[in-house]
Each structure stands twice: as C-alpha cells, then as structure tokens.
Amino acid sequence: MEPVHHVSEWLGTALDIEMQKRAEQTLRRSNEELQQFAFAASHDLQEPLRNISTFTQLLARRYQDQLDDQAREYIRYAVEGAKRMSKLIDDLLRYARIDTRDFLLERVNLNGILQSVLESMRTHISEVGAEITSDSLPEVHANPMQMSQLLQNLISNSLKYRHPDRKPVIQLSVRYAPGEWIFALRDNGQGFDPAYAEQIFGIFQRLHGRDVPGTGIGLSLCKRIVERHGGRIWAQGRPGEGATFYFSLPDVLEPSSRT
User: Fold this and answer.
1) Using CA atoms, how far apart are residues 35 and 98, in angstroms rounded to an integer?
2) Is 1.10.287 the CATH classification of the domain at 6-97?
C-alpha cells in the first residue's frame, strides 16, 4: 500500500495547479475588463471634452469684445483643462492596450525602431538642442509597436526633465548577459532622489510636481511594456546629476542571429 504522505503530496500539487489556473483566469478577466473600461471611457469621455473645448473657444471668439481680461483667462483655463484631460484619457487607453489580445511578437531590429522614433521626434529634439547617441542595438523577439512606445517614452522623459543649465545629452547603450539583453538610457538631466527609484514607475507618479507638463503615465507604461515582454526595468539617479533607466529583454533568438 502506497504511503499516505505520497497521496497528500499529490493532492497538494493538484491544488496548487488549480489555484494557479484560477489566478491566471482572474488576471485575464481583470485585463479584459480594464480594456473594455478604457475603450468605453475613451469614447464616452472624449466627446464631451471636445464639446467643452470647442464651444468654449466659440464663446470666446463670438463675445471677445464683451469679455474682460479675467473672463478670457477663465476661458483659457477651461480649454487647457479639457486638453489635459483628453491627453490623460489617451494615455490611459494606451496603458490598457498593452495586454490586448493582439499582442504579437516578431523579430524586431531595434536600430530601425530607434531611427523611426528619433525621426518622429526630430522637431522637438532640434528645439531643445539635444544630442542623442546609441550603440548598435540587437534584434529581439518583441512587439514592434510597443518597442517604439518604450523608446519614445524613455527619450521623451529625458527631454522633459532636462537640466535648465546644460545641453541635453542622451546615450543608449546595451550589453549582453546570459539569456538577456540589458539596455541603459543615460541622460544628464535633473535626475531624482534615489529614494524614489521604485516609485518613479508608479502610475500618475510625478516626482517634480506639476511644474513639468505630463500625465504621469509614461514610465508606468514603459514598465508594463517591458514586463509584458518578460523583462524588468529599473532606474538610478541623483538630483541634478541625471538619471539612467535600465531595462532588459529576454534573448530568445538563435545565437547566430545576434547583432
């Protein structure tokens, strides 16, 4: 007769597997509900916001001769508030879409992705006089659209928090570690207190307050993208000394295909 403790171990393993399946199902339902909410919110909230912005501006044009400076200022606040809310909704929608069912992976040349991102940001980069350099980047197994979002958000973050007294310099480097590529995006911007190195990736976290424009979703979106690809992301920085954002991506390609 088989010892009782073997039966107990089998039952315990079976229960663990069942609990894991239930947890995965719950997570999947939560992600689907988040996506449905985001899509509904995007449609149901954007339309009234557009109406607020449009009719407020029409009001200002039609009655501009009858409005004093204070009234014009109030109208400006209303229009800017509507635009900020619209941007926030768009960012939340992008955040929810990271776990969409259309998440498809393919062989991605990150050099091409980076060049496309820099081209799309060319005007802003020129306006702030930024210098951006990069190592030769590898091919990875990833979602190209999300890789573009990741690089654009990280670079935009460095430009947004550039130091007021020096030319923005951003450098993207990469090294290979067993089983993964580790990327580092360094800047010479404002930096941040090391005590907030983990909080910086939280949704709506803005360490510099509202003095710098933005919705506080950019870095949390980066975290969600990297983790969706099986990687990790972290940051180091010091006030006034710039920041470095690290992220890893699994190396699942054949050794001969590495660049």
Assistant:
1) 9
2) yes
